[in-house]
Write a sequence for this structure.
């Protein structure tokens, strides 16, 4: 309703409704007719139902009215309204905020689909009508016309993928309504391909199930959704035939200009063929026997498609162009409002179909994203796959099809990694890769110890039942805003897993004692000091927590005065935990290697050095080097993050102390509530234990005892530290360079402020998150 | 959020702006509803009329010629009207399109009709 109702007074519907309810309740005791009120007061029945009960008939039909006859009350009504005060409402007793918010504003160009129709208007032409009127050609289309239609269809496809209803974009193209009736072969094949492509894309997105209503409209005109006769598998052949035919025709033509036009048509058909093939093969991946082969095939198609795009972009102007001011994306073949009146009333009316160059730009980027997604089959364990998904989501999170493609590629890839692999095997393998506990090493004799087998079995079955790990990866496929929501629930689920992992570790230690008593040294050593599983679970939990907390910056959820505790938490706890989890993992790996070396030395000493042990000795050092510090890079990265969080925390403290942070008016403010709300998903966890607001306040109060100048210099120190750490990274990626720039700039800013720059002007600095979504560059204006 | 905050130099509570002159009546938010308990002899005639019409079927002809028929749900001083279970007719008598809740601003209203027995036919 966009505030049309809001008068000068702070009238809001809920308050008004509440006031009415209170008034009624107050009088209820005096009232002789409480029955009717109590019915509506109960409030749970839906509005229509209530009205039906009130009206005494089942589901009233508005079209039956008038029952009595219309009485004109225009003037009377306006006069009566004029008696109301500004902001006063006359409202039905069932009218509430929900009704107010869900109302469509009539004559609003964005909401009112019916707007602009006139009883004198002809209905928008259907396919048959357009053919009868001669408005669309079915045969002998000029190359320019073909190019125009193809480009417009690609633009519609892109607009559909961007979240519009397919009825309002793709199916405004009349040619798509009955491709089989088109005589012109290139156009017919292209339209058949589009119809099939729609179905295939829809299937992929449904199967991946990472879409939300704001991403994508699944439903459309069901009559048009079924692909016509042609099967998706025949599409490539159909298109190929037409291409060949056109190329032959092209060769017979003497004129170069016409030639080029025809080739432009061929390029579009070819692009369609390869794009279709790639996407169709993604759909087929689930049943493919070898993921590698299938992905190679997809990759090949994508490569050709991406090579064709520059050629296509260069020839956009050869096609017919949309008429200025018209809603149709192409002068011929489109009937923009054909489905308007069959859409649900709440659908947006005004659809902006993408411009052609922008659409091809989108397709080009999408093809590149698909190619990148193909790399996922390299990642066969949880840790690296999760890293890939997080990265992918950051880069390609805005495109629903790219996200869905990644999901289907990954799920078919891990399932097929080593034959048909179950989730359990995948997780076992993942822990193995992460910190290689000897109990999971099939070569180690302890792995066949029946008790060990049993405990492991129980643990992994529990992991799978909880579905937490699986969910973490899937969740990265959702759009960025939804991810945060879902992460909050995911974090909760980590708690029972932590408990179970800790139990497993202690069982292993117990078992170590038992085996030691039995004199089985090698088993005992392998089982002793086990923290493998709890470290693994904790590490993943910490990561989820960090992403959750920091995503609030990206989504712009935090007010500036909240930054202080948001940065404080990772600085004081989270990032430190991550570093220590990774360090512990590295140490475990190192200890194991030392032990293995020690063992082999004993063996070679006693076994008299055959050729086998020589080989082993030669191979060992090489493996060692690689294995030594597998998490080094990540640890360094988190160290830098730690310093940056520390810097931001102290900086926010300094700025607050200096009076440069706008604070909420205290009568509207309750920091404790905000603090608890921000960290609420962490509360159910046993580890790390939740930090109460009181504890935080103590720590902050302690920090705030320093002078602003001191705090500025502490902050500067942290930023300097971060810079040092970041500079030590070799071959830095773009992200590292960006962080480096942030650390450097903030270092300077802190120093400047610490020296009393602009001491008198207590203006809040600007926090510019454009370089990195977690950390801003602090700018003084 | 920013409009709730004041700059760091002046982190004292601002003096309250004097409350707007309270409207006649007992409610800070003045509303008229058709809840039976609100039947109040002291209502102005216009309010009483609106109260009577609430929940009835209203027909609105709007500036582009469409006719909207729905249950009269809410209005205000500016005669913005909310209808529920609304049917939209391009041509009256032809198949309507069902819209659900709609809001019509006064500037688009051409005429208003209420479905009620004419004075002569009142039982």
């Amino acid at each position: 309703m966009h505030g049309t109702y809001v008068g000068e007074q702070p009238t809001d519907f809920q308050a008004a409704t509440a006031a009415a309810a209170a008034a009624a309740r107050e009088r209820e005791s005096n009232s002789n007719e409480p029955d009717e009120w109590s019915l509506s007061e109960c409030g749970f029945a839906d509005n229509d139902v209530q009205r039906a009960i009130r009206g005494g008939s089942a589901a009233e039909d508005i079209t039956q009215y008038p029952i009595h006859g219309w009485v004109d009350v225009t003037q009377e009504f306006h006069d009566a309204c004029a008696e109301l005060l500004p902001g006063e409402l006359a409202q039905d007793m069932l009218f509430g905020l929900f009704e107010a918010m869900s109302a469509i504003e009539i004559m609003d160009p964005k909401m009112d689909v019916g707007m602009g129709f006139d009883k004198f208007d002809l209905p928008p032409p259907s396919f048959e009508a357009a053919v009868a009127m001669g408005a669309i050609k079915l045969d002998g289309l000029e190359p320019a016309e073909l190019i125009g239609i193809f480009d417009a269809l690609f633009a519609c496809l892109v607009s559909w993928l961007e979240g519009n209803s397919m009825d309002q974009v793709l199916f405004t193209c009349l040619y798509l309504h009955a491709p089989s009736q088109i005589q012109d072969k290139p156009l017919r094949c292209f339209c058949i391909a589009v119809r099939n492509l729609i179905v295939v894309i829809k299937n992929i997105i449904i199967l991946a199930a990472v879409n939300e209503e704001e991403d994508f409209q699944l439903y459309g005109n069901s009559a048009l959704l079924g692909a016509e006769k042609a099967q998706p598998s025949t599409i490539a052949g159909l298109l190929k035939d037409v291409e060949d035919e056109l190329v032959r025709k092209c060769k017979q033509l003497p004129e170069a200009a016409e030639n080029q036009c025809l080739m432009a048509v061929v390029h579009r058909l070819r692009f369609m063929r390869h794009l279709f093939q790639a996407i169709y093969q993604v759909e087929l991946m689930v049943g493919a026997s070898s993921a590698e082969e299938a992905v190679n095939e997809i990759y090949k198609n994508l490569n050709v498609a991406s090579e064709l795009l520059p050629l296509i972009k260069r020839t956009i102007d050869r096609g017919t162009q949309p008429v200025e001011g018209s809603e149709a994306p192409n002068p011929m073949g489109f009937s923009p409002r054909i489905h308007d009146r069959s859409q649900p009333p709440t659908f947006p009316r005004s659809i902006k179909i993408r411009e052609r160059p922008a659409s091809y730009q989108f397709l080009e980027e999408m093809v590149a994203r698909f190619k990148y997604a193909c790399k996922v089959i390299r990642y066969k364990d949880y840790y690296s796959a999760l890293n890939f998904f997080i990265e992918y989501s950051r880069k390609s999170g805005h495109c629903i099809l790219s996200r869905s493609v990644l999901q289907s590629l990954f799920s078919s890839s891990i399932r097929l990694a080593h034959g048909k692999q179950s989730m359990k095997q995948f997780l076992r393998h993942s822990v193995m890769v992460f910190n290689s506990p000897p109990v999971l090493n099939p070569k180690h004799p302890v792995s066949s110890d029946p008790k060990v087998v049993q405990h492991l079995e129980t643990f992994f079955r529990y992991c799978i039942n909880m579905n937490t790990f699986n969910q973490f990866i899937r969740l990265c496929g959702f759009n960025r805003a939804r991810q945060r929501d879902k992460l909050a629930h995911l974090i909760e689920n980590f708690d029972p897993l932590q408990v179970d992992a800790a139990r497993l570790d202690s069982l292993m230690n117990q078992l170590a004692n038992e085996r030691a008593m039995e004199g089985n040294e090698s088993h005992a050593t392998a089982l002793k000091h086990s923290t493998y599983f709890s470290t693994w679970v904790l590490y993943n939990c910490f990561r989820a927590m960090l992403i959750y907390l920091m995503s609030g910056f990206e989504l712009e959820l935090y007010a500036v005065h909240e930054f202080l505790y948001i940065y404080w938490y990772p600085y004081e706890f989270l990032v430190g935990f991550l570093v220590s989890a990774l360090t512990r993992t590295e140490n475990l790996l190192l200890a194991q290697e030392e032990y293995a070396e020690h063992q082999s030395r004993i063996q070679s000493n006693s076994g008299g050095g055959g050729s086998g042990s020589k080989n082993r000795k030669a191979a060992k050092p090489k493996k060692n080097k690689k294995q030594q510090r597998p998490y080094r890079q990540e640890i360094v990265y988190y160290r830098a993050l730690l310093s940056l969080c520390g810097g931001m925390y102290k900086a926010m403290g300094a700025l607050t102390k200096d009076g440069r942070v706008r604070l909420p008016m205290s009568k509207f403010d309750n920091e404790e509530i905000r603090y608890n709300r921000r960290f609420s998903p962490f509360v159910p966890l046993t580890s790390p234990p939740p930090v109460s607001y009181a504890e935080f306040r103590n720590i902050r109060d302690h920090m705030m005892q320093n002078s602003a100048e001191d705090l500025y210099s502490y902050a500067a120190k942290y930023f300097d530290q971060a810079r040092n750490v970041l500079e030590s990274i070799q071959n830095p990626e773009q992200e590292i360079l960006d962080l480096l720039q942030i650390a450097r700039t903030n270092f300077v800013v802190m120093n400047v402020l610490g020296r009393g720059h602009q001491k008198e002007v207590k203006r809040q600095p600007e926090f510019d998150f454009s370089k990195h979504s977690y950390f801003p560059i602090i700018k003084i204006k | 959020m920013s409009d709730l905050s004041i700059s760091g130099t002046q982190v004292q509570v601002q003096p309250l702006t004097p409350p707007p002159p309270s409207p006649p009546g007992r409610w800070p938010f003045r509303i008229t509803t058709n809840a039976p308990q609100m039947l109040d002899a002291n209502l102005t005639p216009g309010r009483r009329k609106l109260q009577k019409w609430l929940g009835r079927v209203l027909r609105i002809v709007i500036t582009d010629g469409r006719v909207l028929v729905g249950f009269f749900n809410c209005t205000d001083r500016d005669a913005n009207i909310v209808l529920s279970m609304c049917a939209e007719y391009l041509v009256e008598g032809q198949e309507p399109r069902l819209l659900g809740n709609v809001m019509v601003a006064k500037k688009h209203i051409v005429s208003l009709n209420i479905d009620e027995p004419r004075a002569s036919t009142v039982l």
About this structure: Residues 37-116 of chain A form one domain. The first strand of chain A starts at residue 70 and ends at 72.
